[in-house]
Amino acid sequence: MPKVGMKPLRRKQLIAAAISSIHEYGLADATLARIARKAGVSTGIIHHYFDDKNDLIFETMRSLLEDLRVETVQRLRAANDPRGRVLAVVDASFAPQQFSVEVMTAWLSLYGSALNAPELRRIFNIYGARLASNLRHGFAALMPMAEARLAAEGAAALIDGLWLQFALKGDLPDPDHAHRLLSSYVDLQIAYHGARQ
Amino acid sequence: MPKVGMKPLRRKQLIAAAISSIHEYGLADATLARIARKAGVSTGIIHHYFDDKNDLIFETMRSLLEDLRVETVQRLRAANDPRGRVLAVVDASFAPQQFSVEVMTAWLSLYGSALNAPELRRIFNIYGARLASNLRHGFAALMPMAEARLAAEGAAALIDGLWLQFALKGDLPDPDHAHRLLSSYVDLQIAYHGARQ
Amino acid sequence: MPKVGMKPLRRKQLIAAAISSIHEYGLADATLARIARKAGVSTGIIHHYFDDKNDLIFETMRSLLEDLRVETVQRLRAANDPRGRVLAVVDASFAPQQFSVEVMTAWLSLYGSALNAPELRRIFNIYGARLASNLRHGFAALMPMAEARLAAEGAAALIDGLWLQFALKGDLPDPDHAHRLLSSYVDLQIAYHGARQ
Amino acid sequence: MPKVGMKPLRRKQLIAAAISSIHEYGLADATLARIARKAGVSTGIIHHYFDDKNDLIFETMRSLLEDLRVETVQRLRAANDPRGRVLAVVDASFAPQQFSVEVMTAWLSLYGSALNAPELRRIFNIYGARLASNLRHGFAALMPMAEARLAAEGAAALIDGLWLQFALKGDLPDPDHAHRLLSSYVDLQIAYHGARQ
DNA sequence: AATGAATGAGCCTTCATTCAT
DNA sequence: TATGAATGAAGGCTCATTCAT
User: Fold this and answer.
1) A56, A195, B187, D104: least surrounded by Cβ within 10 Å?
2) Where are the domains of chain B?
3) Between chain B and chain A, are at least 3 CB pairs below 8 A?
4) Which nucleotide in the DNA or RNA is closest to residue D10, CA to C1'?
């Protein structure tokens, strides 16, 4: 008798193995055989839970984005003021769960391949738009719209840029350092543009 | 008697075809056959000028980095004051030659694959260190070292982050917009931290 | 559920196809595609059962040597006296299973390529040492050690030399003729050197 | 102005490079590029002096056989009696020029590939027939034809077998040892079969 | 549901051969 | 005569995907 509810479990298990394989071997060498071995299952079974490899990669991506979204939503709920809302978005991106070597590596690898994969590109941009929107709303309560827009764009770029640098350096990511740099940026924007408001 | 001086020409030609192929098909599908066809040569010839595919990719990377380095050096020479030196570094990164869709796509694709390719990672980091150093020197003349260090780090992250976003959006990159955003960041840093000096 | 015990079967099947292909096309033109076709399987499957082509060739060689070893051991068991033991070794080398055109061709082809393949060379020499040892032991019971050593060496050379000639001539090998020639050699050695003992 | 008589020189030079390359890399990896480099000429030039690679290999083979033939003829001329004629043939095969590691390796490699190359096989057999004939004539003056035939066949096999073993062992060949073993064989044949004549 | 054997397309790479110079 | 750049066919190998069990 087949176990009930195995499907979501298996999918999570395989997605985790995919992330781990991408980190260990690189996206190009993260073969289904390796992913399956890492998940402790057979090669063939992957096609019971995903259409094909593209689908697995796509769902892996979606999973990363979803984790980040959930993290962001939770922190936004706990925020009390506009500045807190901005920093909530920032901190979500550097939360331990997101800001780990494995996840960052997977993310960056997927960025690279998204450029020629419309589906991937699409969800990336949806996430990007939502992040930007959150930041804009936060800043908008603190300064004029034009400045808020630029401040938000800058903050988003800073987040991505820091990620990129940590990922490439291969250092253990330092959430505190990232947080401080971003906080400083946010406060500077508020202090300068907010003062004129 | 064979033509003299063909080697550097052919290598440039093939590197250009590689960049173009990466943009068109993605790094994973930029096969030697496609690169050769785009360069108008046969598959086999690639191995006269490069050890293997990895070597071609590596040299493509090195070429991109070298172009950026040259661009940066030229603009640094033309700069008159510390602020100008910082902006020279910034503008070099958004110079038309660098800030084109083709080049950005190639760059981002290579970032992704560099994570598991020590050689690529190495030259990436050398470039990153030099960029950071240039920025630090510029800022150092305008504010205390501790602040200069953070300002430089922020500027570098902003540059990379903006690139990332442009690359992912697939928009035509807008150098002026990028320049304005970065200028604003630089001026804000100077205004705030420089004032206390 | 996959079939159990397929592995040794497939390996034997592929080794047989390799021997046959070497005979038909020569070692240089015994491509994996041809071997696979002869075995009635696809090209890819070979790499499920062997690391790579070298491994297949190596195992083919080992298989030939092992067949000869088994044949030799069996005949040695059935031998009653020293002379019988010497002739057992001789006859094993000319047993129908070994002394067929296909097998001889494969053997000679592999000799040629073993010269620059340390692994092949190694097992060849192990086999050669064992053959020589068997012959030496046989002769040693019949004559002084110094003579036995030379007689054994001569017998081994005769066996290999006859093989070579049959292989090159492409004649159907004639085990009886080979047996007679070797027997005569053995008897002459015994008659001459054994008399002095 | 082209040098006169360059053709035979170049051919010898290339054949020597071929032999050396076969020894160093094995027949399979003795590419025209390597042979050319070893001869100190360009790749393309080989096709001015040989039809194609097969032709070069064929001529290399013929050169080896011809050297052996000349050596044999010279020694036969110097021989005074039947026994001397037999040993002349034997010694020619183990003359330093023939019995060198490079030459033996080339020879054995070519044996292997001759099995599926009718042209090579043909000249091999012509040589073999001549060798056998020389030996037979020598023995025929010393014993009845039937015995002479077998003695000649045995001697030929011994020669080839010893070659094989030296080649495979990779030892420095020991002409004296080979000579002694063969001499002993010849003398034993004469002593035994010749006595009854 | 699960296995892993089997397929076959496609990739990188090598190499004999040709050809412009 | 000589070079070595260039071609293109073919080989070994990998891998997503399918399928019998």
Assistant:
1) A195
2) 6-194
3) yes
4) F1
pLDDT at residue B10, as a whole number: 93
Determine the nucleotide nearest to A28 by Cα–C1' distance: F15
Distances (CA, A) of A153 to A70, A187, B88, B175: 21, 15, 22, 15
End-to-end CA distance of chain B: give it in Å, rounded.
67
Which of A116, A150, A166, A196 should be substituted to probe chain B, the one whose Cβ sees the most B Cβ atoms within 10 Å?
A116
More confident residue, C99 or D20: D20
CA–CA distance from A179 to each of A75, A87, A130 (Å)?
14, 9, 20
Q: In which band, very low, low, confident or very high, does the pLDDT at C3 lie, cut at 50, 70 and 90?
A: low
Asked if D160's CB is within 8 angstroms of C160's CB, the reply is yes
The answer, yes or no, to whether residue B77 has pLDDT greater than 90, is: yes
Q: Are C105 and C22 in contact (CB under 8 A)?
A: yes
CA-wise closest residue to B177 among B87, B94, B86: B94
Q: Which subunits sit against B, judged by 3+ Cβ pairs under 8 A? A: A
User: Nearest residue to nucleotide F7 when comparing alpha carbons to its C1'?
Assistant: B42
Alpha carbon of A42: minimum distance to chain B alpha carbons (Å):
25
**pLDDT (0 to 100) of residue A1:** 44
pLDDT of the residue at C120: 94
pTM score: 0.92
pLDDT class for A195, splitting at 50, 70, 90? low
CB C68 within 8 A of CB C159: no
What phi, psi does A121 have (nearest 5°)? -55, -40
The answer to whether A181 and B154 are in contact (CB under 8 A) is: yes
Which residues touch C31 (CB under 8 Å, ≥6 apart)? C21, C25
User: Which residues in A lie closer than 8 A to residue B23 (C-beta atoms)?
Assistant: 115
pLDDT tens string B80-125? 999 999 999 999 998 877 768 899 999 999 999 999 999 999 999 9
For B77, residues 6+ apart whose C-beta sits below 8 A from its C-beta are none
Please say if the pLDDT value at position D168 is more than 90: no
User: Helix axis angle, A101-114 relative to A118-140, nearest 10°?
Assistant: 120
Q: Provide the pLDDT for residue D3.
A: 56
Question: pLDDT-derived band of residue D4, with 50, 70 and 90 as boundaries?
Answer: low
- How much of chain D exceeds pLDDT 70, in percent? 96
> With contacts defined as CB-CB under 8 Å, which chain C residues touch D161?
156-162, 164
Reduce the DSSP state of residue B175 to 3 states and report it: helix
Which residues in C have their CB inside 8 Å of a CB on D? 23-29, 105, 108-117, 121, 124-125, 128, 150, 153-154, 156-162, 164-165, 167-170, 181, 184-185, 188-189, 191-192
* Chain B CB contacts of A111 below 8 Å: 108, 111-112, 164, 168
Task: Give the span between the Cα atoms of A182 and D76, in whole angstroms.
Answer: 96
Phi, psi for residue A172 in degrees, rounded to 5: -65, 125
- B6-194, superfamily in CATH? Tetracycline Repressor, domain 2 (1.10.357.10)
pLDDT for A186 equals 93
- Cα separation, D141 vs D151, in Å, equals 12
Asked if B46 contacts B30 with a C-beta cutoff of 8 angstroms, the reply is: no
